[in-house]
Amino acid sequence: MAENRVRKWRLPAEWEPQWGVQLTWPHADTDWAPILNDIIETYHQMAREIAKRERLIVVAPEDAAREMLRFVCPTDDTWARDHGFITLTDDEGHHRLLDYRFNGWGEKFPATNDNAINRRMYEAGIVEGEYKDCLDFVLEGGSIESDGKGTIFTTTACLLAPHRNQPLKKSEIEQRLLQDLGAERVIWIDHGHLTGDDTDGHIDTLVRICPEDTLVYVGCEDPNDEQYEALKQMEAQLKTLRTLEGKPYRLLKLPMPRAIYERGERSSSARLLPKGRKKQEVRGEKQEVRGERLPATYANFLILNGAVLCPTYGQPDLDLEAMRIIGEAFPNREMVAIDSQVIIRQHGSIHCCTMQFPSI
Description:
The chain has about 350 residues and is an alpha/beta fold. It has 9 helices and 18 strands.
C-alpha cells in the first residue's frame, strides 16, 4: 500500500516562476464609467506586457473586452488582487487555491459578484488545483506579502480593521494565517498609511518583499507631508526587523510621489469620486476644484517572469528614480513603466489590478 504523504504547502514569493496573471476588466457598470476609455487603454497596456511573458486571464462581463480571450462572469469592480485566489504550492508543483471572502474592504463597497468569481473560474476549469473554501475568513491578496520561505508580512491597521474578522483577536488571526498559508511567522507592520487609501493600509502599498531578503518600502522626506510621521515610524520599525536567520533586511527606500489630487470641474453634474462612494451634485458656477488626495505609491509594482511593471505618475524625475531603485531589487528583470495616473483615480495601482498564479 502506498504511503499517504502529507503535502507541505507554502505561499510562494511573487518573483518565483508564474503560470499566468488575472485581470478583471473595467466596464460601464463599474465606478470607472466616467473615465472608461482611459482606464481601458491602461488595462490594454498592462495586458500587452503580461501576455508577452506569460498567460493572461481576463475576467469580464460578456460585453466587455470583446477582442480578448476572456472568462465571462459578472463583476462589481476590477481589483483582482483582492478578490482573486491566493495560490499555494508544494515541492511537487501542485496548487492549492484558497478562496477567501472579499467583502469590499470591510463592507465599504459592493462585492457580491466579485466574491463569487473564484468559484466560477474553478468550476469552469479556468484554473486548476485543489480548491479550498476559506469563505469564513476575510483576506485580501493585497494585505499580505510572502518571501516564499516562511515569513508573511501584513499590517496591523488592515487585518484588525472593522468589519473584517471581528471578533477574532490579533493572535487568532495570526494563527489562521500561519495555518492556512503554511508559514512559520507573521511580521506585523504597525505604522504607515497613505492618505486616500480605501484598504485600511494594504502592505502592497507600503512595503514589498523582494529577493535576497530585501524590503522595498515607501519613504517620505517632507516634514510638511501629512504622511511623514507615520512613514518615518514605519521606516524605524523596518530597521529593527530580522530574517529567520537573524540578519537585518536590506532596505531600499522608494521616493514618495508629489501629492496628486482628484481634480474636476464643479458644476451641476455629478463629480467622479473614488470607487463605490456616493456621488454628490454641486450646483452653481463652473469652477476647477481640487478634490481629495490620491494614494499614489511606487510600491504597488507587479513582478512578472523576466520583468517588473512599475507604476508611474507623470513625474519623470521621481518615476525614473523609483524604477532605478526597484531595478536594484530585481537586477535581472526588465523594468517596464505603466502610466498609472488613471488607475489611482479609483485609489489603486498596478498590483491592485492584478493577481498572479504560480507555475505548475
